[in-house]
Design goal:
alpha/beta, 9 strands, globular, binds (3S,4R)-3-hydroxy-2-oxopiperidin-4-yl beta-D-xylopyranoside
């Protein structure tokens, strides 16, 4: 390379570096209403206590989103803490909030292996009594929220990354048919509500995605109603690739399933290195990835767009640091509820 070329290269890289500095998106949350800038429902996972007692949090929820997913309180542990004793108070408060604010409510989740009440984990009985117990839970809950919840995650995380069935209490006690039964019971309880299968890594793991689509297609062949697939989308700034995400979305709608990007968050410290603060370069990568996910979703035909839901408001509220035991900053607002580059850069 000649000296001339080297100088040129140097100038180009300086230019690129200063551009990056100047291009850090900066904005005030008050200046935009994100949900009004996209053509699909924009949701967020909400914690009831924060919503009630944290003003900054509540303000972002009501301003920026038009759909809510309860982050925890619709899970069996909270709705049926004691067998046959349902606990509706917190959930009904959230229903009222959604009605007051004209927001859609997505129910999460009926059947899962986590956050089960102790009695359910310890339940003893024949496959028939297990089925009855599952049916009672599903139908009592779906009927209670009839007309108030638009859609349900009926079954959550039932398939492993290699495509096999996840070992859980439902599989062990009822067998593989628990999935179709869960959908059937939910549909019997309310025929108008939209029914989703929800899982993680559906864009990164092809075997898992194939297995889920094959399973749901086989249910439909038996006449069971399944409306859509929730792709949780707990991803990282550098993984999976934008192509992999686009491909996954395409395969899901081409198989005639509504798509809910149901739990979007974008980690910037997936390897769990020490990271007491978020670096500017990672925040920019994160902003680009959020935009890429939204852009890929815009390519989904409107009839198949159930919406994008973000899994929390601020980095202070994210499940990732405590669940995985590492520093991370995966959401659109920082710990002080200020907009991050990712929020400013959207849609
Ligand atoms: C998480 C919640 O965010 C946490 O508050 C809770 O402690 C554990 O569950 N996949 C799901 C969600 O389907 O329900 C999980 O939510 C995150 C992973």
């Amino acid at each position: 390379m000649s000296n001339h070329h080297l100088i040129l290269l140097f100038l180009i890289s300086c230019l690129a570096a200063s551009c990056t500095q100047e291009d850090i998106p900066n904005c005030h949350a008050d200046e935009k209403v994100l949900h009004s800038l996209v053509s699909f429902p924009l949701g967020v996972a909400v914690d009831q206590t924060e919503l009630n007692f944290n003003e900054a949090y509540e303000q972002i929820v009501s301003q920026q989103f038009n759909s809510i997913t309860p982050e925890n309180i619709f899970k069996p542990q909270y709705l049926q803490p004691v067998q046959d004793q349902f606990s509706w108070e917190a959930a009904d408060q959230l229903v009222a909030y959604c009605m007051d604010h004209d927001m859609r409510l997505h129910g999460h989740t009926l059947i899962w292996h986590n956050q089960l009440p102790f009695w359910m984990e310890q339940f003893q009985g024949s496959p028939e009594t297990w089925e009855q117990m599952m049916k009672t839970h599903i139908q009592t809950v779906v009927k209670h929220f009839k007309g108030k919840v638009t859609s349900w995650d009926v079954v959550n995380e039932a398939i492993e990354d290699d495509g096999s069935f996840r070992e859980n209490i439902w599989l062990a006690n009822i067998g593989e048919s628990y999935i179709e039964k869960a959908f059937q019971y939910a549909h019997e309880a309310e025929s108008a509500v939209k029914l989703f299968y929800n899982d993680y890594s559906l864009s990164a793991k092809r075997k898992k995605r194939d297995a889920v689509i094959e399973l749901l297609n086989s249910l439909r062949e038996k006449g069971i109603r399944v409306d859509g697939i929730g792709l949780q989308m707990h991803i990282a700034h550098n993984y999976p690739s934008n192509n992999a995400i686009a491909k996954a979305l395409e395969e899901v709608w081409e198989n005639d399933y509504l798509i809910h990007i149901s739990e979007l968050d974008i980690a910037i410290n997936p390897l769990g290195r020490e990271m007491p603060t978020a670096s500017t370069s990672r925040l920019i990568k994160q902003a680009e990835k959020y935009k890429a996910v939204f852009e890929a979703y815009q390519e989904v035909p409107a009839d198949y767009q159930h919406g994008i839901s973000i899994w929390g408001i601020s980095d202070r509220d994210s499940w990732i640091p405590s669940f995985f035991g590492r520093d991370d900053y995966p959401l659109l607002f920082d710990a002080m509820y200020q907009p991050k580059p990712a929020f400013c850069n959207l849609p």
